[in-house]
Amino acid sequence: MNRYGIKKLVFLLAINSILSLQSCGGVPEEKSSTTQSNKVFAVAEILTLIAEENDITRTLYTKAIVGAGKKQGLKFDEDWQDDEVEAGPLPALFLRGISSDIRKSPVPLGLYLGSDFPINASNKFIGKQAELFEKIKTNKESQHFFEEDQKLYTSMFADLAVAAPCVNCHNEHKNTTKTDWKLGDVMGATTWQYPSDSLSYKEAIDVIKAYRNGTKAIYTAYLDEIAAFKIDSTKPSIGNKWPSKGFFLPTAEVFIDSVRKLTSYKSFEKLLADSDKRKNNYLVSN
């Protein structure tokens, strides 16, 4: 096996071990090596990978939890964490929760959601990001650039209206500045930032782990909120069933396991493809 095959094998084994142990609270002992320390991934590659995972995760939450849950009587509100509000986080707030948890981690990964018609004025794109967002709205293609002011490598990805709950909420919100959103529209863009132009295998794993930990943290916070509901009739049964089956919600473990099944294969395929591309480029140049 050549050194490119070894790198792929090391990475896949490492990420499988780390992510499978997250639910148990443990991680494999780290071992320093030349392979781990090498910067082998361009930052745009990893930010694209994690953005794709985020799309899958948010779509699952939006459709299978919020959309199906509302049909069963579950409520979702922007003030979901207020003591007097018995509801769960809307999809945009679910993303904000992930972002907040990432900021608490040692991983220097930035994430936020912006738009040219945001409900919250502080999320309105300005400057270069506003300019690039116009391109995203036109062709839905991601934009990668270096943010001079912040000295951060930045990637922006189209945030599409993938489910009716998103469209209805934004059209009907009291602070909305646009009332004619429809399915498929580019409602905004998720923006990811990282301080380095390239990452080692370990750094790539850390980025994926930080994102997935954030997902688990916000979903667990939602279940904790439900446990504190004062009206028993508003509490769904928590177990292995989803809202599509009735007044149920999956446990954090069931939800995260579903996320991993949907995202892991796609992530591995992406990393393998990137590794093969580098291998071919190396063979051509040598």
Automatic annotation (TrEMBL):
All copies of domain Tll0287-like, residue ranges: 115-193
Superkingdom of origin organism: Bacteria
Extent of the signal sequence: 1-23
Pfam families, per the entry: Tll0287-like (PF11845)
Protein keywords: Signal
PROSITE patterns for the chain: PROKAR_LIPOPROTEIN
Name used for this protein in its record: Tll0287-like domain-containing protein
Organism of derivation: Aquimarina aggregata
